[in-house]
Each structure stands twice: as C-alpha cells, then as structure tokens.
C-alpha cells in the first residue's frame, strides 16, 4: 500500500498557485519528484506526444523481422476477385500518372499493420490526389472485379487497414489539402488524407482545436479517423465523430442510381461520388447518409473529404496526474471530478501500475508521482485560468482529504502538459515493444471496468507476461492488453471467447472505438442482434454489390 501523504497537498497547492502566476506549472513538492523526469536534451528526455510521425517508429523495426502472412495464420479463403494484370497497371497509370507503386520494398510498409500482426501481399498501391481519381479507380475496379483496400495512416488496431490477400491498396496519403476553414463557425473542410496532427496545428493557429485527439495523431488521417469512428482523448468533452462530423464526400464502388440522384447531379458523370459535404450544423433533409460511413471501416465507400466542427481553443488547460490507492478510489475520484469540475472537465484517463512499469521500461518515461496501484490523468479546459485553478485546487484538496488520491502533480504550461499526457498516450507504443500483444478495446459499465483485468490475471497466471488495463475511464472504455513473448494458440484460447462472453454478460461492447477490421469481425454478434447484422449485410450489398471494398473486414463472412 502506498503511504498516504496527507500533509503534502495543501503545501503543493499553495506553491502551485504561486507558481502559476510566474508561468510555471508543477507544485514544488512534485518538482522534487519530477526531477527524476528527464527534460529535453537529456538522454531519456524524449517525451513528445507524436511518436508516430513515421509509422511504427523504431518499435516495429527492432522486433521480429518478418510478420506471418495473414492467409497463413488465419483460416481465410481468397474470394474470387480478379488478379491485377499488366493491362490493369497501365489503366491505373493513366488514372494516377506516376503514382502507381509496385516496388516490393515500398509496398512492404503498406502490407503490414502498425502492430505487426497481420500481413497482406498486395502488389500495387495507388496514390490518388483527387476525388475524381478515386472515382475512376473504383469504377475501374468495380468493372474488373478487383478488390480494394482503402488505407489512411495505417495505425488501425484491428487489421482493417492492410490487405488480407492481394487487394489493391488505395492510399489517401496525397489527398492532404485543407479546402476551407471558417473562423467564425470553426468549420473545417479538408481532404481525407490530412494528418490529424497537421490539422490540429492548422486550426490551433486560428484559435480552434480539433474535436478529437489520439496517440496516433502524428500518422493517422482524418479520413481514417472517420472511417473508424475514432474516439480518443477528447471524447469525454466533445463527443463522438457522429456529432462533430458535419459532412462527408464519399466514393462508392457502385451506388445505386436512385441514391445518387438525391445528391449533386454534376458529379454523377462518374456515377460514384456521394457529395454530402455540407457545412451545416442542422440539416434534417432525409436520412443522414454520412452517418453510415462513419465507422464503416472502408467497407462501404472511400471517404475523400470531411467537414468537421472544431471547438474554440481553450485559454486555460490544466493537467493533473494523480496516484490512487485502488480502483474503488479511481471511481470515486471520477464521480467527485464530475461533480466539482463539471463544465471544465475535458479528459479523465486511467492506467494501472503495470502500464507505468511498461512505459518506464520500454520508453524510459519516469513517473512524476509516487508508485501507486492506479494513476489518473485529469485534464481541464476552460476560458479563465484563475477560475479553473480555483476549482481544481478545491477538487484536489477534497480528493486528498478523503484518501482518494495519495500523490499528484499538476501542469499548466504546454511542455509539462505534454510530458504528463505522454505517460498515457504512449502506453500503446510501450506494449508493442513488450512482445506479442493481445488487444481488447471494450465498453463496460464503469463500475465493472477493471474487474475483467483482475479476473484475467488470475485466469492466465504465468502464461501471460503482462495483463494491463488502461483507457478512457470517463467514457467507460477499457483497453485490456495481454502480452507474451510470442504468439501462442493456447493463450489465445484462454482469452477468447472468454473476454467476449464476459463483456456480453455485462451488456458491454466488444469494440468501443477501434472497430472490427479483420481481427474482430467474427465477434460482432456478441454486441449486435441478428437483425442488425442482417441489415448491415444488406447495406453492404446495396452500396458495394460485388463486395470489392475491404473484403474480409468488419462483417462476418456469410454462411
Ligand atoms: C499509438 C496509437 C494510439 C491510438 N489511440 C487511439 C485512440 O485513443 N482512440 C481510437 O479510436 N483509436 C486509436 N488508435 C487506433 C487508430 O489510430 C485509429 O483507428 C485511427 O482512426 C486510424 O486512422 P488511420 O488513418 O491510421 O486509418 P488506417 O489504419 O489506415 O485505416 C483504418 C480503417 O479505416 C479504413 N480507412 C482509412 N482511410 C479511409 C478512407 N479515407 N475511406 C474509407 N476507409 C478508410 C481502412 O480501410 C481501415 O479499415 C491508436 C493507434 C495507435 C497506433
């Protein structure tokens, strides 16, 4: 049990208040501990928030040299699509001149997922720059019965972003232009291949922020975010992309003509462009078709442009990183936080002690607070620094007095805020360096969020290297990860279907925010009734009658 440091907080808080006026950010008592945290320039000081500007970073290159082909590891049969011929390559060269990649070395990175767990064997990658080019590609592939795998930043967690067999990879990497930004409404319209971090920078220069943020921001594309309905770190405050995305432009392989005629007739020369790229906050004209594509994981259409509502940039951001003696205290801290910080609360994340050990061991990050069984990261975003600081101080005094928190540190300046966030954001990266990772991303009633982690630790015993739990507690979203030295069928057998049955038993969701992709498509029925599944199959058949778009993904194969 971690010692209860009752007398320290009031002192910290006074010092913190004083320090704030001078632009400092961490209470003195925490500075003493944080001095173990390396600063910039020190050998272990790399705590930036964007470890993924280059895909996978060193984490992938330093591990197993070769990822097993998906078709060898999993029992999956190639569907009877055509095989890309020389004539097809010539046709693609006409559509995207100089942007047809067939070099095996260049293709390698796009055939393997970020986690290095699945690998396709595509022989061609296309890099369109415009919607028209995407439209021509899909029309051609539809006619030729060629399968296509849309790909954004390739940071997906469920094997949806890479081919299973030889699907053509359609990358949005060169579709990276901002189309418009309105300084009054905060509405951003951009192409789908814009990198999230670059968009964040763009809107921040204009006093706005993106409504979503995630650890993969340095690589993931906004189109990929929409296609996966990514949740991330700002979900608690700004909600789902189902609310913040105002419009989409999507290319379908062959949308039925009756759908097209409702939309912009001028683009129908291509027969495939669904232009629902409005910038209206309110629009109740018929069915909200864009919602179908949010979270459709590239199985219904290729998203080519996004219109999204950006909130104003908060003037005051505070991050508190706290140690809690148990999960019950984490939950009570959350309830207290909602009650006392209410309108300024923008994130409530948690991680267990094993996560902290992993970020320390693999990434050299050092905990700024005393070792604790659990840690929470609380972010507030508001418009008046003094007001927010006062509220935060009362909250911290309260949680300390009641023994909910045993140690903590605060940050208000950007550099320290980023350092604290890195501890939480880089867990995924640390896990990927720990060996073979079995990942589960589930929604559960918040009171039961950690039970499954404890349960699995007991169930798996020494079979697992680490069983860890962390995630977006404020959204009831647990990231449950199990690591082992190497892939083991018996460990997988101990995990599945156990984890899914356990989750279904709590009326939870087997995929909170990562989607189903290739790896989770067969567990959809744990969270959706047969009638919903059937309707999904019918929608897929309607929009993609030949099933060429991202086959083997999201929906279970038909019996
Ligand atoms: C370190 C790290 C942290 C992460 N944190 C989070 C998190 O907090 N929350 C979260 O939700 N996810 C998280 N993820 C998962 C991942 O980053 C998200 O799913 C992200 O939205 C994927 O975007 P992408 O551009 O990389 O898409 P990709 O990985 O390239 O593709 C993902 C899926 O979307 C489809 N797709 C991509 N672009 C398009 C398009 N233009 N049109 C149609 N379909 C398309 C692909 O076919 C695939 O099925 C994290 C990943 C990493 C590596």
Automatic annotation (TrEMBL):
Subcellular location: Mitochondrion
Cofactor list: FAD
GO biological process: malate metabolic process
EC number: 1.1.99.39
CC terms in the record's Gene Ontology section: mitochondrion
Major localization listed first in the record, in broad terms: mitochondrion
Primary gene name: D2HGDH
Matches recorded under PROSITE patterns: FAD_PCMH
Claim: Zinc is one of the keywords in the record: yes
The FAD-binding PCMH-type domain, residue ranges: 118-313
Name of the protein: D-2-hydroxyglutarate dehydrogenase, mitochondrial
Low complexity: bias regions: 54-63
UniProt family annotation: Belongs to the FAD-binding oxidoreductase/transferase type 4 family.
Oxidoreductase recorded as keyword: yes
Range of residues in the leader sequence: 1-32
Function: Catalyzes the oxidation of D-2-hydroxyglutarate (D-2-HG) to alpha-ketoglutarate. Also catalyzes the oxidation of other D-2-hydroxyacids, such as D-malate (D-MAL) and D-lactate (D-LAC). Exhibits high activities towards D-2-HG and D-MAL but a very weak activity towards D-LAC.
Annotated keywords: FAD, Flavoprotein, Metal-binding, Mitochondrion, Oxidoreductase, Signal, Transit peptide, Zinc
Alphabetical list of InterPro entries matching this protein: FAD-bd_oxidored_4_C, FAD-bd_PCMH, FAD-bd_PCMH-like_sf, FAD-bd_PCMH_sub1, FAD-bd_PCMH_sub2, FAD-linked_Oxase-like_C, FAD-oxidored/transferase_4, Oxid_FAD_bind_N
Region (Disordered) location: 32-67
Provenance organism: Equus caballus
Reaction it catalyzes: (R)-malate + A = oxaloacetate + AH2
Entry GO MF terms: (R)-2-hydroxyglutarate dehydrogenase activity; FAD binding; zinc ion binding
Pfam assignment, any one: FAD-oxidase_C
EC main group: oxidoreductase
